[in-house]
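Input chain follows. Return structure tokens only.
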Amino acid sequence: MGNLIKVLTRDIDHNAAHFFLDFENAQPTESEKEIYNQVNVVLKDAEGILEDLQSYRGAGHEIREAIQHPADEKLQEKAWGAVVPLVGKLKKFYEFSQRLEAALRGLLGALTSTPYSPTQHLEREQALAKQFAEILHFTLRFDELKMTNPAIQNDFSYYRRTLSRMRINNVPAEGENEVNNELANRMSLFYAEATPMLKTLSDATTKFVSENKNLPIENTTDCLSTMASVCRVMLETPEYRSRFTNEETVSFCLRVMVGVIILYDHVHPVGAFAKTSKIDMKGCIKVLKDQPPNSVEGLLNALRYTTKHLNDETTSKQIRSMLQ
């Protein structure tokens, strides 16, 4: 991702100190190590998951042939043979979402605990902040790839239809032990979402807040709004921007910024778009609009379609028109 990135967040919110956030080379301190190592085990597999998803081609051709010639046993077998290993992949992606959720909850626990403020946490625990950013970056990349691949849902619904037909006819189904009915139901709900990973993370964050009643909700929402500001400042300030040696760094920061905005919008009672929000939404949208359009359309769509409060009456007309 290029050389050392250090960001001075001068203009975060009123309670923010001057601090640098090193998204690139931050190393865990002793106190971070336990959580860091747990999360690292999960993050190590993230790139492989994305590669598998990127190369996911689907069994559309075999499925069409089988549907058009229902009496041709050979074609039925061929379609089933093509779909079963693909469903194995989909199961792997779904199981990874569960691991990612657990990792996120561990990070939230560490980054919101008392007695430190969210800003102090991000300043002191930069390696954990970087892992949090990496989870969001992965999540948005996963969902962008999933949204543009209709084969995933087609393959899975064909698999389920065929499986129930086999059950009715008492045909032993190889591959059924891969995905039993209960798991198939959960996977079906997961893949029915436009942005399944984001939904998993926002549900996990909401659940984290409701289960930790002794923790003020602001600890979580301020952690998210501070991260959003860090990314925005990094992107809109030429002197920081000029330190990026790799274009990837820009897309990393953009994705992380959008990810924390969406989480904030799901967790905060009035969301990210209200006047009282601690996120400078106009500034964040402007940063997105200043990028080459084809590189951020997916992120603008994520703000349009996966946030919760955009269409509330409290959202200013100006913000709505910026996102039109």
